[in-house]
Description:
The complex is a heterodimer of chains A (90) and B (219). Chain A is mostly beta strands. Chain A has one helix at 84-89; strands spanning 2-7, 17-23, 30-31, 36-41, 45-50, 55-60, 67-69, 73-79. Chain A has a single domain, classed as CATH 2.40.50.100. In chain A, strands 1-8-6-3 form a four-stranded antiparallel beta sheet, with no helix packed on it. A four-stranded antiparallel beta sheet of chain A has the order 5-4-2-7, with no helix packed on it. With 219 residues, chain B is α/β, with parallel strands linked by helices. Chain B has a single domain, classed as 2-Layer Sandwich (BirA Bifunctional Protein, domain 2). Chain B has five helices and eleven strands. The two termini of chain B are 32 Å apart. Classes of the chains: A mainly beta (90), B alpha/beta (219).
Amino acid sequence: xxxxxxxxxxxxxxxxxxxxxxxxxxxxxxxxxxxxxxxxxxxxxxxxxxxxxxxxxxxxxxxxxxxxxxxxxxxxxxxxxxxxxxxxxx
Amino acid sequence: xxxxxxxxxxxxxxxxxxxxxxxxxxxxxxxxxxxxxxxxxxxxxxxxxxxxxxxxxxxxxxxxxxxxxxxxxxxxxxxxxxxxxxxxxxxxxxxxxxxxxxxxxxxxxxxxxxxxxxxxxxxxxxxxxxxxxxxxxxxxxxxxxxxxxxxxxxxxxxxxxxxxxxxxxxxxxxxxxxxxxxxxxxxxxxxxxxxxxxxxxxxxxxxxxxxxxxxxxxx
Lengths: 90, 219
């Protein structure tokens, strides 16, 4: 098992921060790679940050209403891994 | 381009979501949805309660719908005579930059207003939208999922602007205008829409000339 950090990505020139506007999942929930994980807002745009991997959302670091900078850690996801025995079965 | 004509806000959102899925999957190419809405006030993600100057009930009693929506920005009004453009564009093929895309949308309206109608249309530094003189005529709020855009820009062409008095548009104390205020003769809604569609297409093709969208405001 490995922990993957979810970052606020670069959103564009001159956009240094964004507000966490909505979490699609709560801590402990299962998330799927590529699905909406958290919505962030700038003045005139909302941007949906996807889950970077499939697994469990173990920690929400930045909560709704918080203003965060580009590159900030928003959450931790414990990545699902296929065990050696399962891999052999596949 | 997908022209939906006059369509209820919620129905247009359904169409937009469907198109967004198709563009995201690569089943459709970038699509520009053009439409008008029956009277509706929409609350964006950045909306504040103080942006509504009357109750939701009072709004509905005036025959105006009220919708919460998942676009950026504060409150706005849509009604017949206002052209609404929802570009569902994959920014991965254009430029992964929200600032760039917001400026592109502004530019798509500023150019025809200046070049074809002789209006002194401009953007204001630190703000988003399009102004003519002291009046804001173009309103923008977007969403992005998988770097594919949804929502977009609206332009007041001949819309009744009285319902804007029920809200603080964009959460600000703005003077709102409509293009018909600036002309004696009737202006063609379709002609303006066509010009903006062409400008959006052209600007997308000119994606390299980013600096032009960032030119200094002229107010």
